[in-house]
Amino acid sequence: MSKKYNIAVIKGDGIGPEIVDEAMKVLDAVAVTEDINFNYKEYLLGGAAIDETGVPLPDETISGVKASDAVLFGAIGGPKWDTLPRDKRPETGLLGLRKAMGTYANLRPAMVYDELVNASSLKPEVIKGVDLMVVRELTGGIYFGEPRANEGDRAYNTMVYSVEEIRRIAKVAFDIAMKRDKRVCSVDKANVLDVSQLWRDTVEEVAKDYPEVELSHMYVDNAAMQLVRDPKQFDVILTGNIFGDILSDEASMLSGSIGLLPSASIGDKVGLYEPIHGSAPDIAGQGIANPLATISSASMMLRYALGESDAADRIDNAVKKVLAKGYRTQDLSEFDATEVCSTGEIGSIIADYASKK
Ligand code: IPM
Ligand code: MN
User: Fold this and answer.
1) Which residue has its alpha carbon closest to ligand 1 atom 8?
2) Distance from the CA of 245 to the center of ligand 1, in angstroms?
3) 1-113+257-357 has which fold?
4) Which of 79, 166, 321, 333 is deepest in the core (most CB within 10 A)?
């Protein structure tokens, strides 16, 4: 009997619709081989939602995603909506969705495909074999802290973390480390910030429950430097919302293109699976966007949300094969390409590989 999953799909803005279409193409391919039935339902978020409904996060989207088994998401935002007041902006919609779904843990793996060691701006010997995971707290910190205001002649935001918020994200990081190389590096700014001192103390407490995991601490400025100096020293990086936002963009470039890396946002119940890159409005609609990050996000969705690891393996192997054979989208066309493909072409090739035994 075929398994049935309800997938909420949020295509979003810019390149969002193009890359999500390719991920769905690949999901449909593995659905056939693995006897899975995906029931997709589309919801609006960000600019597309503003245009259609006047708000960046319609209520229907919140109730729809909560009733689904998992959410596949593209990207939001663009210059068209940049001048709107903050509460009407696409980004506010995404933050609201994360909060409403309770997805407090953002997992951002950064790995370097052997086939692309030359694509990074760093030397091959520095990045070959990099395989790290940024665990970013996603529903707290300075993104959400009160008080916040723009008073015209001054403005402020507040970085707030409670022990409970720190504890639950730390547990996620330690649990992941147990399945990896058992090393957690917690990144903070405890030499300056009170909130970081609480972070550090709380992470130390949580670490007592994980005697097998080696815990280290690093200041965020040093971590930013170490990530490009010697990224292989890291296994799991545990950090707060804004530091994780910055460090995960930095880590993504180890792989050569921000168009390659997926992410999972998990927490209370339903998870959100999305590429780590943005909506790239400058290249939208041209068929040149790299869909690999979104396709890999669909694989994470299969693995973590639906427990369909065979289907996920199929996708991961197909992505590796496509890269090994030299199929490249334009962002990577200078790196050992045998053929430069459009967004749709590379999606079809991956779908084809994923559906073969
Ligand atoms: C990300 C993005 C978002 C963030 C923006 C679009 C609100 O940069 O997912 O990393 O800062 O979290
Ligand atoms: Mn970001």
Assistant:
1) 245
2) 7
3) Isopropylmalate Dehydrogenase (3.40.718)
4) 166
